[in-house]
TrEMBL record:
<dbReference type="InterPro" id="IPR009069">
    <property type="entry name" value="Cys_alpha_HP_mot_SF"/>
</dbReference>
<dbReference type="InterPro" id="IPR007745">
    <property type="entry name" value="Cyt_c_oxidase_Cu-chaperone"/>
</dbReference>
<comment type="similarity">
    <text>Belongs to the COX17 family.</text>
</comment>
<feature type="binding site">
    <location>
        <position position="33"/>
    </location>
    <ligand>
        <name>Cu cation</name>
    </ligand>
</feature>
<dbReference type="Pfam" id="PF05051">
    <property type="entry name" value="COX17"/>
</dbReference>
<keyword id="KW-0479">Metal-binding</keyword>
<dbReference type="GO" id="GO:0005758">
    <property type="term" value="C:mitochondrial intermembrane space"/>
</dbReference>
<dbReference type="GO" id="GO:0016531">
    <property type="term" value="F:copper chaperone activity"/>
</dbReference>
<protein>
    <submittedName>
        <fullName>Putative cytochrome c oxidase copper chaperone Cox17</fullName>
    </submittedName>
</protein>
<keyword id="KW-0496">Mitochondrion</keyword>
<keyword id="KW-0143">Chaperone</keyword>
<feature type="compositionally biased region" description="Polar residues">
    <location>
        <begin position="1"/>
        <end position="27"/>
    </location>
</feature>
<keyword id="KW-0186">Copper</keyword>
<dbReference type="GO" id="GO:0033617">
    <property type="term" value="P:mitochondrial respiratory chain complex IV assembly"/>
</dbReference>
<keyword id="KW-1015">Disulfide bond</keyword>
<feature type="region of interest" description="Disordered">
    <location>
        <begin position="1"/>
        <end position="32"/>
    </location>
</feature>
<dbReference type="GO" id="GO:0005507">
    <property type="term" value="F:copper ion binding"/>
</dbReference>
Length: 77
């Protein structure tokens, strides 16, 4: 079965290539769905459960908090 999985000593000696570099790039800038989760949840709750006529105006502060958080990660909204 070692031919199927290879030995760990051989894998450690192989040079690192594309996939490792790609994962490092992804860790530098995460996906937008994976950041600012509490701010996003607060914004969504405010918008969904708003009883006012203009939820966007009523939830402006939570929306601004979410935008500020996303901007901190390099996303433009």
């Amino acid at each position: 079965m070692s031919w199927l999985f290879g030995s760990s000593s051989n894998a450690a000696q192989e040079p690192t290539t594309g996939p490792v570099q790609t994962s490092q790039t992804q860790t530098e800038k995460p996906k937008p769905c994976c950041v600012c989760k509490p701010e996003k949840a607060a914004r969504d709750d405010c918008m969904l459960f708003s009883k006012g006529e203009d939820p966007a105006q009523e939830c402006k502060s939570t929306i601004d908090q979410y935008k500020t958080c996303m901007a901190g990660f390099g996303f433009k909204i």
